[in-house]
Amino acid sequence: MHILIIGAAGMVGRKLVARLLAEGEVGGRAITAMTLADVVVPPRPENPPFPIVATASDISTPHEAERLIAPRPDLIFHLAAIVSGEAEADFDKGYRINLDGTRLLFEAIRAQASYRPRVVFTSSIAVFGAPFPEEARDGATVDLPIPDSFHLTPLTSYGTQKAICELLLADYSRRGIFDGIGIRLPTICVRPGLPNKAASGFFSGIIREPLAGKPAVLPVPDSVRHWHASPRAAVGFLMHGATIDLEAVGPRRNLTMPGLSVTVAEQIEALRRVAGDAVAARIERVPDETIMRIVAGWARSFDASRATALGFRAETSFEEIIRVHIEDELGGTFVG
Questions:
Q1: Residue of 95, 115, 158, 172 with catalytic role
Q2: Minimal CA–CA distance to 119: which of 63, 80, 159?
Q3: How far apart are CA 245 and CA 303, in angstroms?
Q4: CATH assignment at residue 264
Q5: Is residue 215 part of a domain?
Q6: Residue 39 has pLDDT above 90, yes or no
Q7: How many domains does the structure of the chain reveal?
Q8: DSSP state of 199
Q9: pTM confidence score
Q10: Measured between alpha carbons, how far is 30 from 65 in angstroms, rounded to an integer?
């Protein structure tokens, strides 16, 4: 099996490469070659057990997608994207990378005769936008979980770009051009490394920075609720998407992944329980109207029973998400 990973230099891409190297096979088929592509040359593992090519590639430029799929990879992970905050700030760049790049990839596959790879595409819960269903309970308004069947009315350019790509993926799959599955990722938390330009970055920052002994900025109220899963869970989603029987998935090829619906206050309380008061006290509240406006349009809770029934799994508590970060990124310790 030859695997192509587009977006391999990103956090999830690097973790996916590590998982593939550790397992050496996908769905019972041995990995025989791997191509890693991103706008910068992805890290190439040392002494890999099979040939690995790492290359710089922008799939939104002419002929790049054709170059990447020329070896006819059996499995393609398409992870590359401009994140939400950057796509909102730079309209042209967001559409060029997130939409045009994806369509060029799909078209490059279509141009190949007798070629039908598996395509695993990372979408986002940002494809959904307010107003969301709710009901009154005991004098209060309660959000109802969003099912896969909820209409796609994104309120950001990023969400719009992902929604269009979801429709393309379903249609190209229906036409037999490739076997595609869209993985709607929750917000990935806790993201390791430096902050990025995603509007959702603070969800990780208020956990990651305090555990490292650093102050963290919280730009939204404690009452903000969101949908989360760990990087470890995200890689698990991708691996399962690579092997799942797509006949069981059916024509609705885009799935909302399981996750946890928690408020910022619940995140902070989980941090306090895991790491103590001194760590939680490193969070500083600095309101940011732009981020609050973007986050206000995001869904807060999802019904992921369809994905769960198909075998996708995530954490069951936010404390577990924090402990995954401490184990995977901090060597089992943190700055108390």
A1: 158
A2: 80
A3: 21
A4: 3.40.50.720
A5: yes
A6: yes
A7: 1
A8: T
A9: 0.94
A10: 25
